[in-house]
């Protein structure tokens, strides 16, 4: 399995109503230094219907303005549709919505 495929397998595990950070996905995929590669992989997502790349945000809970499938506003819409809440600052409330799976 190549790096992108490994990243996609991790992203598929993020539950509805939760988010993960790029760094968290990179760690779970086997290399914490690959956070930027996670971004590249998600931008090239071959199957957005089954790989919920919109559930990945930066470490501050900010959505991507370059979200590959409709920009930041679309990412916000998709997350809100799953019940994810945003603070006054426009960031995901990470303490409540960050996926708790960690690297073992």
Question: What can you see in these coordinates?
Answer:
It contains five helices and two strands. Helix 2 (22-28) packs across helix 3 (35-43). With 104 residues, it is mainly α. The protein has a single domain (3-97), classed as Arc Repressor Mutant, subunit A (Orthogonal Bundle). The protein has a two-stranded parallel sheet with strand order 1-2.
Which series of helices and strands comes N to C?
Answer: HEHHEHH
What is the count of distinct domains? Answer: 1
Helical/strand content category:
mainly alpha
* Rounded mean pLDDT score: 91
**Number of E strands:** 2
Percentage of residues assigned to helices: 25-40%
Architecture blueprint of SSEs:
Blueprint: H1 3-12, E1 20-21, H2 22-28, H3 35-43, E2 56-57, H4 71-81, H5 94-97
Parallel strand pairs: 1-2
List keywords for this structure.
Arc Repressor Mutant, subunit A, 104 residues, 2 strands
In short:
By secondary structure, the chain is mainly alpha-helical.
């Amino acid at each position: 399995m190549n790096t992108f495929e490994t990243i996609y397998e991790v992203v598929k595990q993020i539950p509805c109503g939760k988010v993960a950070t790029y760094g968290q996905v990179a760690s779970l995929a086997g290399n914490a230094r690959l956070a930027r590669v996670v971004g590249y992989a998600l931008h090239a997502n071959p199957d957005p219907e089954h790989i919920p790349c919109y559930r990945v945000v930066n470490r501050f809970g900010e959505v991507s303005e370059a979200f590959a499938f409709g920009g930041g506003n679309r990412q916000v819409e998709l997350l809100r549709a799953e019940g994810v809440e945003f603070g006054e600052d426009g960031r995901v409330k990470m303490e409540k919505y960050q996926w708790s799976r960690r690297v073992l």
